[in-house]
Amino acid sequence: MKFERYGIGVAKGMALTFKHLFRSPITVQYPEEKLVVSRRIRGNELVWFLDRCTGCATCAKACPQGNIEIVTHVGDKNNYVVDKFEIDTGRCMFCGLCVEACPYDALAMGRSYERAQHRRRQLILSKEELQLSDIRQPSGYARPKIEAALPKQNLLVYWDRKEGGQKLSWLGLSKKRGRGV
Amino acid sequence: MTLLEQFQLWLGSSWPDWAAYIVPGIVGIVVVLAFVVITVIIFIWYERRLLGRFQVRLGPNRLGPEGIFQPIATALKILLKEDIVPAKGDKVIHWLAPVIVFVPVLMVFAVVPFGERAILTDLNVGIVYVVAISSVSAVGIYMAGWASNNKYALIAALRTVAQMVSYELPVVLAILGVVLMAGSLSMTQIVASQNLPFIILQPLGFAIFFLGTVAEMNRSPFDLLEADSEIVAGYHIEYSGMKFAMFYLGEYGHALAYACIISTLFLGGWQGPFLPPIIWFLIKVVAVFSVIVWMRATLPRLRVDQLMAFAWKGLLPMAVINLFIVAAEVLWLSEITPWLLVAVNFVFAGVLVLLWSKLFALGGGRVEV
Fold first, then answer.
1. Which chain B residues are Cβ-neighbours of A23 within 8 angstroms?
2. Measured between CB atoms, does B291 come within 8 Å of chain A?
């Protein structure tokens, strides 16, 4: 007589969930905590490099939406000087055609993914706003030099204590945790 | 003599007779109502946090310290919601049902001993009163299902009635085992007689009672009447606003009430060393509730036929056998040391569970129609 189905399965299941009780929660509490994204992420923003741009407007021609507005005048050395370089990111679908089209590598996809605004007019970015800054960094996509300098993607940010990450307490009580992108 | 009766005597010496009856009653009702509502709110938060931890997530932790005010926010939201009555529903019964579900839950607490004398009324038939009152909720749930004029609600209501009727029998038989050993139906007497908690003396009775009560309070894995995946939300599918909140409170109140009853009957109630009785009682209640949440986090829902079979083929015969064993022990072996009884009962429990695993195979996972 073989004894089976006498409740050992229930006991095993209960033991398993009990073990799960002592694991660290995997929840990322988003606005406060952020995971490090892929180094080659195509974020929803564009980065524009003033010194490389010749004002040729290839990007504006490549844009399927016609979002890029460029106004130039002729400078001292018979070159274009960019007066106005505006991208309406509200209509932009981040297809990246402008980045591919640029012959001088003056446009790049950025890393950030938090570019929501409260007003539509705030989505039209001027040439000052589009330039490289602390919060506007180019992604490593198709740019191996940039990629090598970026932090590696890390889904377990709290375990990486060397870089300031902290393992969550059992209840998730820890206050000092999480890093920006 | 309970604290309330002492209060009544003390008032009776100075106040008029009628006030000496009414004032202690009102005080007791307010204290118990406040206890139930506050504890239920804390339990809702506790269950969500604990369930979150079982599922390796955090649970609500935003509102207040560690999310403790989340149930209050939920309650406020529910209060502000529109109260909808189905056009073709039975309006009077639709209104009455939440009350009939919630009030018996509160009434159970009248005989729960929170401490040696901290009990509203020490009824000499306390446990019978609990059994009688707590079954009334099934009527309320049935009324809700009927008045909603909704097929899912009615299915849930019918399931509830079947479930309540089925599981009432093993639960009562398990209670009888306790009553036989304690020699009294009064809750205070049952607690006082537990020098050794009855969970050790009657492990099988405890298992039967625990599973039966989990089924009666309609908690997972016996939550067929709510069964989100099959009948949407069951009997409260057509309820919104405060009436839904009454069902929700009633459900958790039921869980709290049964956790209290389980701790009273099997875990030694307020008895315990060092700490004050009320703390011991609350520790035991929270422990029982945690195990219920643990079961919810683990076990999948039973099928309807499995539910019925588990009650009638599994728990009921075992409960009858358990009752016979306990009765024989009380009759013939009452003089011997209790630890021998403990050993005998654990052996009986193991053998019976193993035997029933052979008898109660349910077609080996196949459904036989």
1. 56
2. no
Note whether A172 contacts B: Cβ–Cβ < 8 A.
yes
**Chain A interface includes B351 (CB < 8 A):** no
For residue A175, being part of any structural domain is answered with yes
- Kindly state whether A153 is in contact with chain B, defined as any CB-CB distance less than 8 angstroms: no
Choose the closest CB to A14 out of B56, B58, B294.
Answer: B294
Alpha-carbon distance B20 to B11, whole Å? 5
Span A90-106, mean pLDDT? 88
Q: Do A97 and A34 belong together in one domain?
A: no
How far CA B65 is from CA of A27, B200, B289, B309, in Å, comes to 18, 38, 22, 45
Closest-CA distance, B37 to chain A, in angstroms, reads 25
Q: What are the tens digits of pLDDT across the range A21-65?
A: 877 777 777 766 677 788 888 888 888 988 888 888 888 899 998
Confirm whether the ipTM is greater than 0.85.
no
CB contact under 8 A, B54 and A173: no
Please check whether residue A109 lies inside any domain of the structure.
yes
For residue A110, the one-letter residue type is G
Q: Which residues contact A165 (CB under 8 A, 6 or more apart)?
A: A157, A158, A159, A177, A178, A179
Residue-number span of the structural domain to which A65 is assigned = 46-142
Q: What is the domain count for chain A?
A: 2
Q: Is 80 exceeded by the pLDDT of residue B295?
A: yes
Give the ranges where B333-366 is alpha helix by DSSP (H).
338-359
Identify whether residues A50 and A111 lie together within a single domain: yes
Spatial neighbors of B120 by CB under 8 A, at least 6 apart, are B2, B4, B28, B32, B109, B110, B111
CATH of the domain at A57: 3.30.70.3270
| A111 & A167 share domain | no
Using the structure block, give the residue that is written with the tokens 């009635």: B161
Residue A94 shares a structural domain with residue A72: yes
Which ranges of B55-150 would DSSP assign to H, the alpha helix? Answer: 70-80, 91-108, 126-134, 136-147
Residue A6 is nearest to which of B54, B297, B354, comparing CB atoms? B354
**Mean of pLDDT values over A107-129:** 86
Looking at the domain assignment, is residue A127 inside a domain? yes
C-alpha closest to that of B326 among B304, B305, B348: B348
Q: DSSP string of B239-305?
A: --HHHHHHHHHHHHHHHHHHHHHHHHHHS-TT--SSS-HHHHHHHHHHHHHHHHHHHHHHPPPPPHH
Least CA distance to B350: which residue of chain A? A6
